[in-house]
From TrEMBL:
It comes from Nakamurella panacisegetis. GO terms for biological process: 'de novo' pyrimidine nucleobase biosynthetic process; 'de novo' UMP biosynthetic process. SUPFAM superfamilies: Ribulose-phoshate binding barrel. Keywords: Decarboxylase, Lyase, Pyrimidine biosynthesis. SMART domains: OMPdecase (SM00934). This is Orotidine 5'-phosphate decarboxylase. Residues 17-263 form the Orotidine 5'-phosphate decarboxylase domain. InterPro entries: Aldolase_TIM, OMPdecase_AS, OMPdecase_type-2, OMPdeCOase_dom, RibuloseP-bd_barrel. Its EC number is 4.1.1.23. HAMAP family: OMPdecase_type2. It catalyses: orotidine 5'-phosphate + H(+) = UMP + CO2. CDD domains: OMP_decarboxylase_like. GO terms for molecular function: orotidine-5'-phosphate decarboxylase activity.
């Protein structure tokens, strides 16, 4: 079975290093002239799929915006996942789940196991019950050719108080998470399937990410203010495993399918050229 790391490397090589977030929050629904209803949600999601899933490497639906509409909203999310994968995009479900024992195993079954209607190619997870609590998801991802992205350095102002706290062994919490991911990914080629979420706007952190050997999801590009130069500050000179993420920068070009596709294509090409120049 081909690993997620290998599939992601192939996808970004073929389609450019861009992940587009699909975030149907109320403001965007209104901007697209859509009602704040399940019908509006479905129209938004399916338009985004039509425009993006055939061309970008990764789409990242934010689960919370679908869950807000109850079971009908989750049904839209299931369709989005299936249709996006059928069109060739990898789907990273932004769910940020984290728990222990049988509950973590149930989340893993829902998001990472073949046959589940919510199974994506990868899912975001929170490690703040301990990195070891993620083991059921790590195992499920490996068994099903899928991946996980673990929160490490987030851009919210509350994050540093926890992520930069120093542990008993002298490392920061963020460094310990990066080191744990590196241990799982050791020896994988072209890269491992355990990625990290590192905000593109966090600046220099002192955390060594060079040994992670896995994808580094970098949200915050574009409308949130981050640039390719910011990526170099955060990640260093080697940006080969960085997966920049943009949501509003692309979604504000909707509801036109052509407009969305053009915005994503331009950004993907800019990133391809800029990241290649810095490797």
């Amino acid at each position: 079975m081909e690993t997620f790391g290998a599939r992601l490397a192939a996808a970004t090589h073929a389609r450019g290093p861009l992940c587009v977030g699909i975030d149907p929050h109320p403001g965007l629904l209104r901007a697209w002239g859509l009602p704040e209803s399940v019908g509006g949600l479905e129209s938004f999601a399916m338009t985004a799929v039509e425009a993006l899933a055939g061309t970008v490497a990764v789409v990242k639906p934010q689960s919370a915006f679908f869950e807000a509409y109850g079971s009908a909203g989750v049904a839209v999310l299931e369709r989005l996942i299936a249709d996006s994968r059928a069109a060739g995009a990898l789907v990273l479900l932004d769910a940020k789940r984290g728990d222990i024992g049988s509950t973590m195993a149930a989340y893993a079954a829902a998001y990472l196991t073949e046959g589940s209607p919510l199974a994506a190619d990868a899912v975001t997870l929170s490690p703040y019950l301990g990195f070891g609590s993620l083991q059921p998801a790590i195992d499920a991802a490996a068994a099903n050719g899928r991946g996980i992205f673990v929160l490490a350095l987030t851009s919210n102002p509350e994050g540093p108080a926890l992520q930069h706290a120093v542990t008993a062994d002298g490392r920061t919490v963020a460094q310990s998470i990066a080191d744990s991911a590196a241990a799982v990914n050791a020896g994988a080629a072209p890269m491992g399937s355990v990625g990290l979420v590192v905000g593109a706007t966090v600046g220099w952190t002192g955390v060594d990410l060079s040994q992670v050997n896995g994808p580094l999801l970098a949200p915050g590009l574009g409308a949130q203010g981050a640039t390719v130069d910011d990526l170099k500050i955060v990640f260093g000179d080697d940006l080969s495993t960085v997966l920049p993420t943009s949501s509003r920068e692309v979604l504000q070009a909707g509801p036109s399918v052509a407009g969305l596709r053009t915005a994503a294509g331009v950004l993907a090409e800019q990133l391809r050229d800029a990241l290649a120049a810095r490797r």
